[in-house]
Amino acid sequence: MSILTIEKLTVAYGDGAPVLDGLELEVPDGGVVALLGANGAGKTTLLRALMGLVPVRSGRVLLDCADLTRLSTEDRVRRGLALVPEGRSVVVELTVAENLRLGALWKTGRKHRGPARDAAVGQMYELFEPLARRRDAAGHTLSGGERQMLALARALVGEPDVLLLDEPSLGLAPLVVAQLLGVLRDQAEATGLTVLLAEQNVTGALSVADRGVVLSLGEVVADRPAAELAADPALRHAYLGF
Ligand code: ATP
């Protein structure tokens, strides 16, 4: 059963040639899908198109069978999509705790105010120990790894159904990468979260993913179980450059 269906999606910047060209993809409900491809393959563009952040020339995006293609980014977030963009975007003037509370802000209803919200934030401190120790520290004093943890935790506080992650491991130490990817894997298993993980770190991404999807020239050229993809040197060589 798919949670996200992408039908013949074509995206271009301005009058340029399409960056995504009739892309078709089914993302299964629950688990981690690694989105792979060389530099410029269109991974970021796909994630941004799913959020409504770049205009779609044609095609459709369905979440749980509902057509999102014409919805605003805000409405997509309300329906359960979240994006952690490349670059560890946190509000650097605010503390860790304040950033986490922000993550719950857009949600409506009692569940995301007062004690329930504090419990959700507390859960993030359990998942990301370094954040617990630095809860009163301002964003700008955090290390790169801590910032990436905070960006991820802030998205998780909003309890999305589908989390889109753009290159979370970029520039981080291997130990921090392992910790971050491990949390994603665990969350997907424990909560049924679906993660679409765009990564240049092919080995790391495939080690926590259930499936691997390879983009090339704006199309899906492989969509296979992660272990199978990791064990296919010809495919790795052809599309992933190693
Ligand atoms: P990377 O891993 O380098 O981020 P990517 O797979 O995420 O690559 P995209 O960033 O989606 O790829 O870029 C795909 C193509 O679209 C590239 O050729 C890029 O130059 C082009 N592109 C991306 N953003 C824009 C933009 N705002 N305006 C024009 N062209 C763009």
From TrEMBL:
Location of the ABC transporter domain: 4-242
Keyword entries, A-Z: Amino-acid transport, ATP-binding, Nucleotide-binding, Transport
Any GO molecular function: ATP binding
SUPFAM superfamilies: P-loop containing nucleoside triphosphate hydrolases
Pfam families, sorted: ABC_tran (PF00005)
Family, similarity comment: Belongs to the ABC transporter superfamily.
Protein name: ABC transporter ATP-binding protein
